[in-house]
Amino acid sequence: MEGYLKKWVNFMYQWQNRYFILHEDSLIYCQSKGTPKKGQVHLSICSIRSVPKDPQRIVINYGMSEMHLRASSVQEKQKWLDALLNAQQRFTSKSQNKLLVQRKKNPFYFIEGAPELDLKRIHTTLTQFWVMQAQLEEQISLNNTQRISQLIQELKHTTTACAQELDEEYNKLIEISKKLQEKLRETNDQNPPDHDDLYEEEFVPTEQFMSFKMDEDEFYSINNELYDDRQLVRRLSSKKMSVAGVSPLFHVIEQLRIPQPIKYKNLINNEAFKDMIIGIDETREQLPAFKDPNESIKFVSLLKDMIGKDLTKIAFPVTFNEPLSMLQNLCENLEYSEILDQADSFSNSCERLAYVMVFAASGLSATINRVKKPFNPILGETFEFACSKFKYISEQVSHHPPISVGYAENEHFEFLSDNNVTTSFWGKSITVTPLGWVNIKLKKNQDQIAFQRCKSSFKNLIMGPQYLDHYGEMKFKNELTGDTGILKLIEGSSEASYELKGFVKDKLGTQYCTIQGKWNSEISIIVAGTMKVVWVRNALPQKSDQQYYFTRFALQLNHLNRQLLKTLPPTDSRLRPDQRALENSNIDFAAIEKTRLEQKQRLARKELHEQKKDHFPKWFIQRNGKYSFGQEYWKAKETPEFQTQAFDIF
Q1: What are residue 156's DSSP bridge partners?
Q2: Cα–Cα distance for residue pair 5/18, rounded to 1 Å
Q3: Which residue, 37, 63, 273, 306, has fewest beta-carbon neighbours within 10 Å?
């Protein structure tokens, strides 16, 4: 059987026509009919399935990746599916089974001259070490000092012996990697890839790969599937694979198994993380998947449940969300934190206050064109962010009302803020009224400056272009010096005006300066007739309309690299599965996970209520209705208990 099917390439190229030929147990595909072969899959070792929600799609899982195909009709899809399944069953022979057994025994059997790994030796050696470790942990828990001393001596000898044996196998792996590179060069010389093979052959870990199971009689060095040799060599030798032929990401995740069991379980078992490619880059330039720029939020179906109510108590569909949590959204206020650094350097207290006021307005620029809401954090959820400018930690401290608290600091300032708000819907708009305060300490002069954010409205819910407008007065006071300031944001009519005006007065009521500008472009301070531009908005990244209009700073907040994977607590927002699935444009699974997490949180609250217990924040302290940072988070992070004693909220 042969013919054209659509094949999913990636989010850049999406569905592309490919010509497929079913020959015995192999499915071969080409760019078009009559062109050279682009790829080949051995059906005898694949899993083949249909997708109920997409009746024209066929998914072929061949271990390290999946091939998604789509027929032009349901009838055509069924013909292909029947043919593939019949071929798979018909050509599963004893010889192939023997080859599979050989592959499990030695995954590099096809590399001429490569040494044979003693996989059972590796497995036995590691098992011996783990057994000794488990015995020692058990005796420590029983406080059996005599047996502990004896086991420590035994463990020293065992460790030395294990290291020697594993070192021998490691040297074999180095030799195998050299042979792999040689075979890769030969393969590339004989089969030069097409220009888009680079995109179609990207390594994407699957659940089988991530689990890396070892049984008594088997050792799965990559997974338990059989591959086309050429394809395997290319994958093993790609930049995304380690020298030894095993993904560096696997090593990172495996290191979490014992010291970080909660995080390990969630990463291994949750589909939201299955298709992620987690690299080593500290920053990123774009989201892993783009959203539809023409997508709009439809509120009509929710109107009857929204009018006159506090929207913090309404569960919105996941399509109303952007892939950031409120904890991360709080951190966005610090994008222009260098303004606070500058403020700390001035000797004039009124000038310091003026700069703090400009800083407060600068954070509003991140909301332009952002018409989707952040995820409401799970109670106990946290988010940390460390960069060259500051370090930041936040926590969801209350569920009803939902309150997130964030704290940041560097050598110049301390920043403490919460997002306690009331949210109401009144027909054509949603109004957000802040209840919490922002407190900023400038360290050099010990200034204590407090202010409350302005009101915000999400407008044109039913008709017209939707937009977010900020308006009203923001009042500032330096509790140390008595200086005060007011920023007035002008409300727009048909669209946001972005205009603001303000002033600063000293403790005697004498005006020191005025502030003017637009919070979507630039803001200036005028002192004695001299104008100084203090803030200019950063340029947005390319294709921002397909990335929720995130700023470059916002793009980093949900970025997850291997170092963070090792150090973050399991409560961090980056590890939240529904949010991660939405970022990867897996909308259906994001909706399922959002519902699951909301239900899990309700059950947790019910259990606390039945036990007549209250939830207490882990990292923030509440006194007289106000929150302060306990300064314990960064210290606790250095201890082994930091990971094991964390909440399993996801």
Answers
A1: none
A2: 6
A3: 37
132 close to 160: Cβ distance less than 8 angstroms:
no
3-state secondary structure of 627: strand
Q: Is the pTM of the predicted complex or chain greater than 0.70? A: no
Would you say 533 and 548 are in contact if contact means Cβ atoms under 8 Å apart? no
Q: What single string gives the DSSP state of each residue in 59-102?
A: EEE-SS-EEEEE-SSHHHHHHHHHHHHHHHHHT--HHHHHHHHH
Q: Vertex 270, ends 264 and 276: CA angle to 5°?
A: 90
Q: Which long-range contacts (CB under 8 A, 24 or more apart) does 616-621 make?
A: 617/395, 617/397, 617/405, 618/380, 618/382, 618/395, 618/647, 619/382, 619/393, 619/395, 620/395, 620/397, 620/405, 620/407
Cα separation, 507 vs 525, in Å, equals 19
DSSP character string of 245-307: SS-HHHHHHHTTTTT-HHHHHHHHH-GGGTT----S-S--SS-SSPPPTT-----GGGHHHHB
412 contacts: CB under 8 Å, gap ≥ 6: 340, 341, 343, 344, 345, 442, 443, 444
pLDDT by residue (tens digit) across 202-246?
333 333 333 333 232 322 222 333 333 334 334 333 433 333 333
pLDDT at position 147 is 76
Sheet holding 54-61, edge to edge: 37-42, 26-30, 15-23, 2-8, 66-70, 54-61, 47-51
Which residues pair with residue 27 across a beta bridge?
A: 22, 41
What secondary structure, in 3-state letters, does 427-467 show? Answer: CCEEEEEECCCEEEEECCCCEEEEECCCEEEEECCCCCCCE
Quick one: tokens of 298?
Answer: 């439809």
pLDDT tens per residue across span 235-260: 333 433 333 333 445 566 667 766 77
- Six-digit token string for 55: 């009746």
